[in-house]
Specification:
The complex is a heterodimer. By secondary structure, chain A is an alpha/beta fold. In chain A, 35% of the residues lie in helices and 26% in strands. Chain A has a single domain (3-257), classed as 3-Layer(aba) Sandwich (Rossmann fold), CATH 3.40.50. In chain A, helix 4 (128-141) packs across helix 6. The longest helix of chain A has 14 residues, at 128-141. By secondary structure, chain B is an all-alpha fold. Chain B has twelve helices and two strands. Chain B has helices spanning 3-37, 43-47, 60-91, 96-108, 113-127, 134-158, 162-170, 175-182, 184-203, 207-210, 232-242, 246-285; strands at 50-51, 56-57. Chain B has a two-stranded antiparallel ribbon. In chain B, a hairpin with a 4-residue loop joins strand 1 (50-51) and strand 2 (56-57). Chain B is globular, with a radius of gyration of 23 Å. The chains are: A alpha/beta, B mainly alpha. The A-B interface holds A 62, 64, 67, 69, 92-93, 95-96, 99-100, 102, 104, 106, 108-109, 118-119, 121-123, 155, 157, 168, 171-172, 175 and B 93-94, 161, 163-174, 177, 181-182, 186, 281, 284-286.
């Protein structure tokens, strides 16, 4: 048995299934033979040292790597059993279903409301009342509503770093994705703002499948149900978070989580 | 005093002198034109046609001619420049072909303007049978401006952070939606600035319009884009070198020069203003 498939998830609970995935930047192989199942309505954390491929892998899951020139992918990624890289699948549709929050919060230089409404508008929603309702509900879901309800039409750039990141999460929620990918969402935030993001992740997993990249191991231990350890472009070990952090099967994993390298 | 300190002071002094020299040349040119030309500027000068063999009257046809030609220049160069830049920067596969296109654009900006003039005659006047006209001259100037508008538009697109594009794409925008709604709005001021600077240069050109439509003297204002026209730079050239009584029309020549320079400084001023507004907005955004 391959070490990366030591975890068995019942087929009906699998949201995303990755098989034999290789990824290249030009001729450099960045990801080597990845195999993982990501379960529905749970938080899956990717950990590993910088440059191990966890962010690259995350960006494969909503085809964002296609925006980078000279990249190439092999293998399959099934979303609800359908290959998201298949020719007849629309990349726009994939990204609607698999939302993303970036490492550096990237609110657009528009008002808070316009940031929230952006995804709805480009997806063709015109009804003003519906837009306003969705904006409000998404901000409530992202635990940001109370802080911004009186300044919706002020620039999003005036928010604090933590608020900006929660706005980006709220913006992703507004278009009702099924999966949310988060690329080190709290790496630039102070402990209190980080705490708020982590609470939010816990709350969101009721309705969404969440995949989070972090190089903060305490964070992975706190928020995730499943943890995957990456090293040098390989998926070394995947298991329930409790097991990974208490009795990992492989020496390499144990060395990393106990801080012996990385 | 130590030798190095003296050397440094000398260095700064010569740098400052060089800067001052450049500034004084500009002030001298503008000052000279202003001193000699200001006396002929009047309402009549700006609103009447030349009379009595161009020794009397105003320069209205030349002002209108330059205005109309500039309009054609903008209509051709701005959209074409923007679209080329969007293609090159956003869509094109960055391979040998795009490198070759970029190299060509750079070379185009170095082609002497008289060569554009000859090309304009061959293409617009002869091949497209547009004749010597406002249209031919405007399009010739449009081609001349194109390298500037493309380059400026590309630079403007490059200043829009990738996170704006990625953010939109991750929310399910198509590539064009992302560009249209989340890239262009932030690039357009920069694009316009480049276009206006290019236009300011084109408006002052004589060589490209020499064969493509500018006339020595037209007794009436242009009625259509297929008419020949008078233009400020060409009028100035005529008055300064081709007139039968150069000494007598010299003040009018200076007055024409002053109007032309005012026009170009005005255009540059608009460009600076747009850029200033844009920077202010960009600072707020970061």
């Amino acid at each position: 048995m391959q070490p990366s498939s030591s975890l068995q998830i019942p087929a009906e609970d699998v949201k995303i299934s990755v098989r034999n995935l290789n990824f290249y930047y030009d001729e450099t192989k960045a990801l080597d033979d990845m195999n993982i199942d990501i379960p529905n309505n749970q938080v899956t954390a990717f950990i590993g040292p910088s440059g191990c491929g966890k962010s690259t892998f995350l960006r494969c899951l909503n085809r964002m790597n296609e925006t980078i020139r000279g990249t190439r992918i092999e293998g399959t990624i099934l979303l609800d059993g359908i290959d998201m890289y298949a020719q007849e699948v629309d990349v726009v549709d994939v990204r609607r279903r698999v939302g993303m929050v970036f490492q550096k919060s990237n609110p657009f230089p528009k008002s808070i409301f316009e940031n929230m409404a952006y995804g709805l508008r480009i997806n063709g929603l015109k009804n003003k009342r519906q837009i306003a309702e969705t904006v409000e509900q998404s901000l409530i879901d992202a635990a940001l509503w109370e802080e911004v309800k009186d300044r919706l039409f002020e620039s999003a750039m005036g928010l604090s770093g933590g608020q900006q990141q929660r706005l980006c999460i709220a913006r992703a929620l507004a278009i009702k994705p099924e999966v949310i990918l988060m690329d080190e969402p709290a790496s630039a935030l102070d402990p209190i703002a980080t705490q708020k993001i982590e609470d939010l992740i816990q709350k969101l997993k009721k309705n969404y499948t969440i995949v989070i990249v972090t190089h903060n191991m305490q964070q992975a231990a706190r928020v995730s149900d499943i943890t995957a350890f990456f090293y040098l472009g390989k998926l070394i070990e995947v298991n329930e978070t409790g097991i990974i952090f208490t009795r990992p099967r492989l020496q390499q994993t144990e060395d990393y989580i106990t801080g012996r390298f990385g | 005093m130590k030798k190095t300190v003296l050397f440094e002071k000398l260095g700064f002094f010569s740098l400052g002198l060089a800067g001052l020299l450049v500034l004084s040349v500009l002030i001298w040119i503008i000052g000279d034109i202003f001193v000699h030309g200001a006396s002929v500027i009047s309402w009549e000068f700006l609103t009447q046609s030349p009379r009595e063999g161009m020794t009397q009257g105003g320069i209205l046809p030349a002002i209108i001619g330059t205005f109309l030609v500039s309009l054609i220049t903008i209509i051709l160069a701005v959209p074409l420049g923007m679209f080329s830049a969007i293609y090159l920067n956003e869509y094109a596969h960055q391979g040998p072909l795009v490198r070759f296109i970029r190299l060509s654009i750079r070379n185009l900006s170095g082609v002497p303007s008289i060569v554009y003039g000859l090309f304009g005659v061959a293409l617009f006047v002869r091949f497209f049978h547009l004749g010597a006209s406002i249209l031919s001259a405007g399009m010739t100037l449009g081609l001349l401006t194109l390298p500037w508008t493309i380059t400026a538009s590309e630079e403007a697109l490059k200043t829009v952070p990738k996170s704006f594009r990625d953010g939109a794409l991750a929310l399910g925008a198509t590539k064009w939606q992302a560009i249209r709604t989340n890239v262009l709005p932030y690039a357009i001021p920069g694009m316009l600035t480049g276009a206006i600077l290019g236009l300011a240069r084109a408006a002052g050109e004589t060589a490209p319009i020499l064969f493509t439509g500018a006339a020595f003297f037209v007794p009436f204002l242009p009625k259509s884009l297929f008419d020949q026209f008078m233009a400020l730079p060409y009028h100035l050239y005529i008055l300064a070198t081709q007139h039968q009584d150069i000494a007598r029309v010299r003040p009018i020549a200076y007055g024409t020069g002053l109007v032309l320079i005012a026009l170009i400084i005005g255009l540059n001023g608009i460009a600076v203003f747009i850029r200033y507004q844009y920077r202010k907005k960009a600072r707020m955004a970061s």
